[in-house]
Amino acid sequence: MRSATTIAFKRTGSENEGKPPEQDPGNDSAEEKQEAPILRPDHEAKDIPLITVANMGNQTFREPQSTKEKLGHRRIDEQGAVSYKKVPTNALMQAIQLGISNSIGSLASLPNRDVLLQDFEKVDIVAFPAAGSTITPSHSFGDFRFRTYAPIAFRYFRNLFHIKPADFLRSICTEPLKELSNAGASGSIFYVSQDDQFIIKTVQHKEADFLQKLLPGYYMNLNQNPRTLLPKFFGLFCYQSLGKNIRLLVMNNLLPQTVTMHEKYDMKGSTYKRMASKAEKSKMYPTLKDLDFLENHKEGIFIDPIALDTLMRSISRDCLVMESFKIMDYSLLVGIHNVELGIKERAEQKELSCGEVRPSTSRDKEKVEVTLSKDSGDRNSDEHKVLQEKFSVWDTLDGDVPHGGVPARNSNGDRLVLYLGIIDILQNYRLLKKMEHTWKAILHDGDTISVHNPNFYASRFLSFMNEKVFKKGTAHLAATTPL
Hints:
- By secondary structure, the protein is α+β, with helices and mostly antiparallel strands.
- The chain has 13 helices and 20 strands.
- The protein has two domains: 87-252, Phosphatidylinositol Phosphate Kinase II Beta; 263-472, Phosphatidylinositol Phosphate Kinase Iibeta, Chain: A, domain 2, CATH 3.30.810.10.
- Helix content is 34%, strand content 20%.
- The longest helix has 20 residues, at 205-224.
- It holds the Pfam family PIP5K.
């Protein structure tokens, strides 16, 4: 008689296989330790080899293409496709639109009321299975969950700037968003709505967490300082799928693409290494820094006395708010439209349209393309003006100045229109920054470096803007020239 033989089978999959993943929005460490499957729409999945990873059970995913360029969580493969945390950005965009549409639509059934303290901590979570559910449509992006932070509070912020739910949805969810190619130093993804009104930016967990803590103070500031230059926040969301948490912040678009920005400056009030790189300066319209401004505008920019007093009071009040929350490392973003250069560019464009001039160099062609894109954007300029009017803090009677623009002049007498806003306010002065300031102060002049304690940072920032950047003068735009 044969002896009985026992054969043991070892299960290779996880014992939690088939169950939805446990999501912990406060823990990003798990995201970095375990690579998760990539979600791709069916039409993007061609010719991508399938592989199976043993430690992930029998889950199958598509191997990403070799990375050509990487910055933070943002990657660009050899074919030029962009992904964020290995989720293709075009698939992410459509999932975002689906989630925001559901979130804003669900608020319609809730009556308007005063904001309560607990509203700032409220989080709504909706599951979006690919097959659809009783409250969500079917889709091709894979199962995901969508979190909406402080929905009642952000509805109040949108109402404060007269943004109706239908207008908000029309801007963000009805047409594909435009993805900006310049990711900035952080490797964030930026989407812009087709009508040029809103920006959707990916933010890190610590930034999203800090914004949630900031919301009560932000609420007070909007009511006490209606001319604030702080960003206009209209929504905070989180896309969750297979261990990936992608947090998204909706803001106003400070620099409208329908107006050519001939100069852009990101200024912190610091002079230590605050100069744009050669690569940045090689761009047609680079983003310059403090030392570049001091070189290009040695005498500053001239603004009418009443407007300047109003501007500096607003900056001072904003600095006080940020100082109270121990915020530092923020910048004043200044976009400058030169009216005289705009007139010249339109004249060149008119000549080109008549076939009298041909661009001879690649830089000329780039300039023509920018001008033509601006002209095509004029179709949306009226719509932009209407919505820009809603969250503009500057009411000008000059017909030459678009809403949101501040009239000014440079030392040559050229008429300028300034677009101003304080950016990067979600940086809290914590231990890491304290240590960074300490060793930089040892090597260099501690008063000139950008990393500083919030009290000194606010004082230096305000002094730099008041003494170096903005000066009292005549800024009236006398000629009637449309922008």
